[in-house]
């Protein structure tokens, strides 16, 4: 039983973020739920959209939550590129949490915190530029909602920074996009890592216009986070190398030939296909290890 093991192991699940690319890891998580495997883990770690997938998994309704990825009234109202021209959030996480997940989907945030498996949303502290595990600050459903918004708070695109327990929060993907390092520091002896990229997708710097815009935003709002923004490709390469070396880490990758999914993708057919491919990748991995 999670948190009360009689063996010497501590099992962690780490879920990569990536905006709409999270449909891949969402499919993987749903396959775990379908097979009744959520309870084998002691702790679940998630960055950005990975943290939201983790919350749905611990609610026991991951498959129901995932169906809102391709609901026609959801992502077109959450991801609105033209909103930037009106100085509104391009990614409306408040609408996603309050309207979509709480009102439409019926996610009981408080019940997630009652799960015997502990949830660890990873954010970036805007004032230190370091990754922060928000698990110690989750004492209510409202705090969990803030933590999930903060963990997914893309610089510039998600609007004003969320504040929680003295932290001003930016997207966890800035500092720990694949949150296995926090799991290992916490004492997890084995970590299953759900990825949102193919093995052949190389780490590259952001487009020049995006880099200039985000750099200007961080200089004004969170200068301590600038090194984290600039160092993302190098950290990604280091993560890929450590994950490929295995050891206590096992990763489930997006299969070769799977389509590219941008972090702001809204095409329902593409999102459903990537979800199905993620679920199939997890099924293959489980059957290979059986």
How do you describe this structure in short?
The chain is α/β, with parallel strands linked by helices and 290 residues long.
Tell me the distance between the termini: 21 Å
Structural class: alpha/beta
Q: Using only CA atoms, what is the Rg? A: 17 Å
Q: List the secondary-structure elements in sequence, H or E.
A: EHEHHHHHEEHEEHHEHHHEH
**Uncertain spans, ≥5 residues at pLDDT below 50?**
none
- Biggest sheet record: 8 strands, mixed
**Total E-strand runs:** 8
Estimated share of beta-strand residues: 5-15%
**Helical run tally:** 13
InterPro entries: Acyl_Trfase/lysoPLipase (IPR016035), NTE (IPR050301), PNPLA_dom (IPR002641), YjjU-like (IPR037483)
Motif (GXGXXG): 17-22
Protein name: Patatin family protein
Motif (DGA/G): 171-173
Give an overview in words.
This protein has 290 residues and is an alpha/beta fold. Helix 1 packs parallel to helix 2 and helix 1 crosses helix 13. The longest helix is centred in the last third of the chain and has 22 residues. The two termini are 21 Å apart. The model has no long low-confidence stretch (mean pLDDT 94). Keywords: Hydrolase, Lipid degradation, Lipid metabolism. GO terms for molecular function: hydrolase activity. One of its GO terms (biological process) is lipid catabolic process.
């Amino acid at each position: 039983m999670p948190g009360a093991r009689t063996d010497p192991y501590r099992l962690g699940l780490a879920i990569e973020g990536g905006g709409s690319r999270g449909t891949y890891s969402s499919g993987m998580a749903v396959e775990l739920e379908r097979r009744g495997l959520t309870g084998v883990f002691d702790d679940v770690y998630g960055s950005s959209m990975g943290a939201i997938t983790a919350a749905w998994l611990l609610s026991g309704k991951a498959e129901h939550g995932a169906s809102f990825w391709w609901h026609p009234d959801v992502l077109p109202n959450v991801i609105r590129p033209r909103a930037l021209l009106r100085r509104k959030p391009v990614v409306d996480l408040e609408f996603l949490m309050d309207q979509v997940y709480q009102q439409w989907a019926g996610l009981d945030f408080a019940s997630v915190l009652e799960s015997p498996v502990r949830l660890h949303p990873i954010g970036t502290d805007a004032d230190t530029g370091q990754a922060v595990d928000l698990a110690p600050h989750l004492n209510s459903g409202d705090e969990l909602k803030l933590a999930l918004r903060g963990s997914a708070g893309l610089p510039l695109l998600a609007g004003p920074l969320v504040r929680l327990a003295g932290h001003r929060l930016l997207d966890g993907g800035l500092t720990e996009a694949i949150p296995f390092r926090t799991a290992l520091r916490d004492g997890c002896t084995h970590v299953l890592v759900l990825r949102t990229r193919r093995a052949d997708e190389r780490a590259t710097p952001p487009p020049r216009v995006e880099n200039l815009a985000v750099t200007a935003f961080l200089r004004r709002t969170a200068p301590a986070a600038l090194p984290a923004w600039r160092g993302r490709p190098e950290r990604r390469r280091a993560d890929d190398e450590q994950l490929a070396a295995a050891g206590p880490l096992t990763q489930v990758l997006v299969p070769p030939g799977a389509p590219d999914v941008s972090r702001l993708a809204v095409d329902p057919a593409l999102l459903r296909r990537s979800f199905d491919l993620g679920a199939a990748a997890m099924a293959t991995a489980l059957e290979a290890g059986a």
